[in-house]
């Protein structure tokens, strides 16, 4: 995945659509001198042969190294989870900033069950929003692009095909 010019929200959307796990790291609090401010985000996701891909930065140095290690640990656990960790940047981490940072780690793991919904007519349009609220990957299949609503919830994966049976 090319992450050079991508905003973190686009990468989240891409991971969600492909069913890839990821960890979102957010600077919750930044006290004193810190490399990045509150609200700064960084994402980490598996990337085949590379191990993991990184998008964004929370400031580099030992802080980012430790944050990446924690994110990798959460990815390996393969379960949805949130946790907050505090990092004093001065002597303990060897960063010249000297302040302290609290990071929120949010691990997102895709649903392991998949459901295929065939038809975007009135029944499909009624079922799709309900299925989108469940921990499932929902594939919504129809040959008529005009039957799909203009906006589709991110957990739904839209398939427009002339041969719906080929999806099965």
In short:
The chain is of the alpha/beta class. Helices cover 26% and strands 32% of the residues. The protein has helices at residues 8-18, 61-77, 122-132, 164-167; strands spanning 22-31, 41-46, 52-56, 81-88, 100-108, 114-118, 137-142, 156-160.
Please tell me about this protein's structure.
This protein has 168 residues and is of the alpha/beta class. The protein is 26% helix and 32% strand. The chain has helices at residues 8-18, 61-77, 122-132, 164-167, and strands spanning 22-31, 41-46, 52-56, 81-88, 100-108, 114-118, 137-142, 156-160. The chain is elongated and about 60 Å long. The two termini are 27 Å apart.
Question: What is the strand and helix layout of this fold?
Answer:
Layout: H1 8-18, E1 22-31, E2 41-46, E3 52-56, H2 61-77, E4 81-88, E5 100-108, E6 114-118, H3 122-132, E7 137-142, E8 156-160, H4 164-167
Parallel strand pairs: 6-7, 7-8
Antiparallel strand pairs: 1-2, 1-5, 2-3, 4-5
Give the strand order, joined by hyphens, for the main sheet: 3-2-1-5-4
Radius of gyration from the CA trace?
20 Å
Element pattern in H and E: HEEEHEEEHEEH
Oligomeric state of the chains in view: single chain
State the major sheet: 5 strands, antiparallel
Could you list some keywords that capture this structure?
168 residues; alpha/beta; five-stranded antiparallel beta sheet; three-stranded parallel beta sheet; 8 strands; 32% strand; elongated
């Amino acid at each position: 995945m090319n992450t050079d010019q991508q905003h973190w929200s686009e990468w989240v959307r891409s991971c969600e659509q492909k069913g890839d796990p990821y960890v979102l790291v957010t600077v919750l609090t930044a006290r004193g001198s810190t490399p990045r401010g509150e609200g700064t985000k960084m994402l980490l996701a598996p990337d085949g042969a590379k191990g993991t891909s990184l998008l964004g930065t929370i400031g580099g140095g030992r802080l980012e190294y430790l944050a990446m290690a924690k994110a990798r640990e959460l990815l390996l656990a393969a379960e949805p989870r949130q946790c907050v960790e505090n990092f004093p940047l001065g002597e303990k981490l060897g960063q010249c900033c000297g302040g302290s940072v609290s990071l929120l780690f949010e691990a997102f793991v895709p649903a392991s069950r998949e459901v295929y919904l065939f038809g975007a007519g009135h029944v499909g349009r009624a079922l799709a929003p309900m299925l989108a609220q469940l921990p499932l990957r929902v594939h919504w299949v129809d040959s008529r692009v005009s039957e799909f609503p203009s906006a589709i919830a991110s957990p739904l994966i839209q398939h427009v095909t002339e041969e719906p049976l080929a999806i099965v």
